[in-house]
């Protein structure tokens, strides 16, 4: 979700420093930050597995079962 209230905003509604006083922008920004916080919490909770992680596991497994000669 992106902030869309200022996309087509033109003078006289839009002015320099508009984000400090625009109630619509402040409301959308708060909602946007709340959504970002929720997504970040979900991403931090879940483990992040990459192909590098699987390669490390496979390499460790090969070393463990190496034949001694």
Descriptive notes:
With 69 residues, the chain is mainly alpha-helical. It has one domain. The protein is built from three helices and no strands. The longest helix is centred in the middle third of the chain and has 23 residues. The protein is rod-shaped. The model has no long low-confidence stretch (mean pLDDT 76).
Structural class: mainly alpha
Q: In percent, how much strand structure appears in the residues?
A: under 5%
Described by the principal axes of the CA atoms, the overall outline is rod-shaped
Topology as a string of helices (H) and strands (E): HHH
Secondary structure: number of strands: 0
Write the layout of secondary structure elements.
Layout: H1 18-21, H2 23-45, H3 51-64
Entry summary:
With 69 residues, this protein is mostly helical.
Descriptive key words:
69 residues, mainly alpha, rod-shaped
